[in-house]
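Re-run with default settings, no changes from the original entry. Doing this only to confirm the output is reproducible before filing.
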Amino acid sequence: MGEHIISSFGKPTKSASKAQLRDLSITASSSFWYLFDYGDELVHKVTVEEIYEMTSEDKDLPTGINKIGDAPPQYPMQEE
């Protein structure tokens, strides 16, 4: 899974490979920062709109409802 790298954003946390959303003790309307790519430090601010218990019948996954700007290419073509 790779080593746990401490980011310059916010307080240190445990490894993402061992963390779960339930560990964050979040509530509706709370926000947190999500570091997507350690190398490029692509950071996203996530604001929780609603929390509910999923059941085995639920087919819809959580979804983004707003964004600001365009996403950078994750793996841009590199010149040879």
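The beta strands are 31-37, 42-47. The chain is about 0% helix and 15% strand.
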